[in-house]
Amino acid sequence: MPLKGIKVIELSGLAPGPLCGKFLRDFGASVTVVNKVADDKVVDINVVNDGKEQVCLDIKSPNGSKIFRKLAASADVLIEPFRAGVMEKLKLGPEVLLADNPKLIYARLSGYGQSGPLSKVAGHDINYLSLTGLLSFYGWRGKHPIPPSNFSEFAGGSLICFTGILLALIDRSRTGKGQVIDSNIVEGISYIGSWLMRSQKMLFNESRGNNWLDGGAHFYDTYETKDGKFMAVGALEPKFYQELISKLEFSHEEAPQMGNNEIREKFQKKFLEKTQAEWVEIFGTSDACVTPVLSIQEAVKFHHNLDRNSFIQDEDGVITPVRAPRLSNYPEGAKQAPLGDNNTYKVLQRLGYSDKQIQELEAEETVKCKI
């Protein structure tokens, strides 16, 4: 795998940091998650910790701080998910750790960034998205904005931080030096939204819910079927729209592309005549840009996804997407790794601690080797 040999330390946090660590792990990096000693169920802390090594460590204690510095001294990447100033208070900030290890890539993944009036304030996905202007795009016409589930934290947080780490690794291969990454969700999701922001005059010049891509157009919407399911219609271009109305058995006179809400009502009546499965059969592999709206469980069984082995489902029914993108030098086929166990004892031994020293550390609650 392309990241084989890269050692990552991930400070335990909520979803964005662990997902970033998963991306690194899925492409070959070894990831060690540092959990709090107070966490009783290390394995259950995060659902994307598959294949990661788990350590229980009190980094606030003097001995815990020393252990953490030893871990970071031999690492390539550190993922730190706290608000600005937290690590500096613990004397484990970038200045300290990069002095120990000049090649370390210190990735700071926060909500609001390392500076500014909100840098030390709590927030969640809806708050970050609201500050970018993008939340104003989502929701029904005439009603309040509705946030897409954790879109900001994963796209603007996890994915952008992952990209920053890869860029820093490339840069280090040339310069031999590590660096600090200020990856924050507000700026990350703003960057992801570059196309939306720059296309406002073209595609988002009307109020929410009245534009082509937000439910304002009958040719870009979802329609209920006879069995209470839905079909997604995205026939933007005229040639695709022609294919759509042909499959629906409408003429251009009956359903012009630039028609009004009466066309939407015609479409809805038509879709209610058949089940979702029947519509899937009718549209098949045509260019009408019509697809079924599937549940996650249904997506696993959908013929296209089955053909590409796009999902992994374990014996407990847990569904996981395969890693993406696909690299020709590393074909797919690997099974989902199990969630990591508590490897504290093994990690401490690797750092040179004796059995007696480990027992003393556990007695003083600096570490926890057994759950």
From TrEMBL:
InterPro entries: CoA-transferase_III, CoA-Trfase_fam_III, CoA-Trfase_III_dom3_sf, CoA-Trfase_III_dom_1_sf. Gene3D superfamilies: Crotonobetainyl-coa:carnitine coa-transferase, domain 1, formyl-coa transferase, domain 3. GO terms for biological process: bile acid metabolic process. GO terms for cellular component: mitochondrion. PANTHER family: ALPHA-METHYLACYL-COA RACEMASE, SUCCINYL-COA--D-CITRAMALATE COA-TRANSFERASE. Pfam families: CoA_transf_3. One of its GO terms (molecular function) is alpha-methylacyl-CoA racemase activity. This is Alpha-methylacyl-CoA racemase. Belongs to the CoA-transferase III family.
